[in-house]
Amino acid sequence: MKRLLLALFCGFIFGLGLSLSQMINPEKVIAFLDVTGNWDPSLAFVMAGALAVTLISFRRIPLRASPILDTEFKLPVKNQIDRDLIGGAAIFGLGWGMIGYCPGPVVAALGIGLSDAVIVMVSLLLGFFVHKILFDRNL
Amino acid sequence: MENFTPYTALAGGLLIGISATVLLLFNGRITGISGILGGLLFPKQGEWPWRLLFLLGIMAGALSYHLVFPDSFAPRTGYPLPLLIIGGFLVGFGTRMGNGCTSGHGVCGIGRGSMRSIVATTVFMLTGVISVYIIQHVMGMSS
After folding, report:
1. Residues 6+ away with beta carbon under 8 Å from B112
2. How far apart are alpha carbons B11 and A48 in whole angstroms?
3. What is the pLDDT of residues A49-106, one digit of tens each?
4. I want to staple A40 with a disulfide (CB 3.0 to 4.6 A). Which of A31, A72, B45, B66 is the partner?
5. What are the structural domain ranges in chain A?
6. Cβ-defined contact of A51 to B107 (cutoff 8 Å)
7. Rg of the Cα atoms in chain A
8. CA angle, corner A77, sides to A76 and A79, nearest 5?
9. With contacts defined as CB-CB under 8 Å, which chain A residues touch B69?
């Protein structure tokens, strides 16, 4: 129960952060990626702000024996830089630049009922499914 | 550069970093939104309730902010439907294939010093810039 409330709380703070920073505004995101046009570097400061915290906390916290409310840390174990990583990131970036939405802001924009976000979310989930059908060997 | 908002961007970024830190410290989980969404769609035993609540929390946070500051931004209207559909699909497909997005790779992975995340973030930033260049300047969506 505590873990669930904590997840809700963290989501709430995350949503506030996306709104305050304007990551939720796709025009702002596109302006950030538009380095050859009317470039707005603001969103580099979102990354800087987030990394100012995580570059310290994400190195120190996993040194603990366990998280406070659970028995173990669930961290990614892969360390190979492979074709899927690079190809996937490249495809994600192309889509991101097309619409100005990455997954977090889509969820946040759904929360304020933007119709753009509904269409993007449905398409995004379709992308998940197609990837699973094509590549998941456990299916 | 007339829309430059470094202070709110920095403050929002701090909130995002704090959220990810608290989730890691208490629950031991990585704040990667594409992974959290994927875990809801293809659920594993016991792992979906927290994911659902996290996503509901994001929506509640964004909605609360919007209710307090209704003029914080004007929602985009009239964006071409084919772009929304294809772009959304590529974001979904790409983040599954590359195991992460802006939050999982960009905020948490780089924070952990993961070489995979550093590479992924560099790549999606680069292709994001290329994509915007093509859409805005070559195809002429630029306003």
Report:
1. A54, A58, A59, A62, A75
2. 10
3. 999 999 999 999 999 999 999 999 999 999 899 999 999 999 999 999 999 999 999 9
4. A31
5. 2-135
6. yes
7. 18
8. 105
9. 19
Nearest to A24 by CA among A91, A84, A104: A104
Structure tokens at B36: 């959290």
Residue in the structure block whose two tokens are 């400061």: A45
The three-state secondary structure class of A100 is coil
Q: Are B124 and B66 in contact (CB under 8 A)?
A: no
Query: What ipTM, to 2 d.p.?
Result: 0.95
Q: Which of B121, B53, B27, B36 is nearest to A104 (CA)?
A: B36
3-state helix, strand, coil in chain A (%, to 5): 70, 0, 30
Q: What's this model's pTM, rounded to 2 decimal places?
A: 0.95
Say if B141 is an interface residue toward chain A (CB within 8 Å): no
**B34, B65, B88 member nearest A20 (Cβ):** B65
Taking residue A32's Cβ as centre, other Cβ atoms within 10 Å add up to 25
Please give the residue of chain A at the shortest CA–CA distance from B87: A95
Q: How far apart are the first and last CA of chain B?
A: 15
